[in-house]
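pls ignore typos typing on phone
LLP + seq
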Amino acid sequence: MDYFNYQSDGQLWAEDVALAKLATQYDTPLYVYSRATLERHWHAFDQAVATHPHLICYAVKANSNLGVLNVLAQLGSGFDIVSLGELERVLAAGGDPAKVVFSGVGKTAQEMQRALELGIKCFNVESEPELDRLNYVAGQLGKIAPISLRINPDVDANTHPYISTGLRDNKFGIARERALDVYQLAHQLPHLNVVGMDCHIGSQLTEVKPFIDATERLLALVDELKLAGIEIKHLDLGGGLGVTYNDEQPPLPAEYATALLSRLAAYPELELIFEPGRAIAANAGVLLTKVEFLKHTEYKNFAIVDAAMNDLIRPTLYSAWQDIVPVIPRQGERQCYDLVGPICETGDFIGKDRHLCLAPNDLLAVRSAGAYGFVMASNYNSRPRVAEVMVDGKQVHLVRARETLDQLWQHEYLVE
Ligand code: LLP
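k done
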């Protein structure tokens, strides 16, 4: 459920603000987020596991805007980060470093050092060389690093191959067969403290079963480690819960939690960590765009809009389908359009074969754009990155100004 709805005036609103008004005020393309939706999704997760010790660590990569992070920090959220940049963003947004888990296969010594100084909750380690590096950096600082090992449970998440991460031949994590040995190694290293176990099997999962399969494999390993004298205090199941873009029916956090908690009854002290990104942010945002031209050809109709693949790359990169709806629907016959951007690539499309009734200057909302939208934007074709606003009831906060043209080359130099 989200707070982007058509109101009695027939127009699409974000909470208590008409999207058309935002387009006039801030221009297009424009990312619009809904605070109430972000909060609702976060609470849905938090409440689903309320009966068990847990921490929701929002995956910053999904949408790292300071305004978004700030809204979640105010709820007491933890954060899952993958870089120094994300760590500093969390701090700048008022997040608590003691609730930060650090994922990623390539953490640098500099990143480890800063995270150790800040006292993050856990490093999710993905390989033996990473263990060695972390042990060394912690030793240099006279600190003990809390660690979890990311286990690759080898389960098929049944999702797009680019966002499937829990299979044997993905680059992520430590193979289940090697896990006991690597835990024993970590346990012996003097500047590490083994506290957890984690996995993340993929993104946009639409069924509970792969999560449960992975959890069962991990719990078996928790038992094995206990016998070997290694106590696991938290189990981090990563992110990955899917959302409805079209007609998918992903489980609600409550269904996911019910299935999980039945497996966790025997582990009342084992803290659960989740790293949801998409499930919190995707449907809390839309990308507003304007129709520049309509081009009708013998073979196809094109609606050329002012947003492009540099603003929202998911359709191009993953053949992702996102709903595209008129902000002010007009009466008339619908036609079949490809919605394309102004970039000089055939792959520059936002949606294909959409049945819409359009005229130049019409506003469209690309739905489910709150996750992996702006964060994946680029300046390709020297297009300034667009503005982002956060709607909160009747209020509107500009949470990122539109880039200006001279910002495009502010870090570039002439050769002389
Ligand atoms: N934790 C880890 C370790 C991850 O790698 C990811 C996502 C998450 C959590 C959050 O997953 P979520 O709850 O959002 O599914 N750009 C792609 C998605 C890439 C996801 C990468 N990892 C897309 O636009 O579909």
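The chain has two domains: 4-33+282-408, 104-274. Residues 59, 62, 80, 103, 163, 200, 203-204, 238-241, 275-279, 314, 318, 371-372 surround LLP (CB under 6 Å). more later
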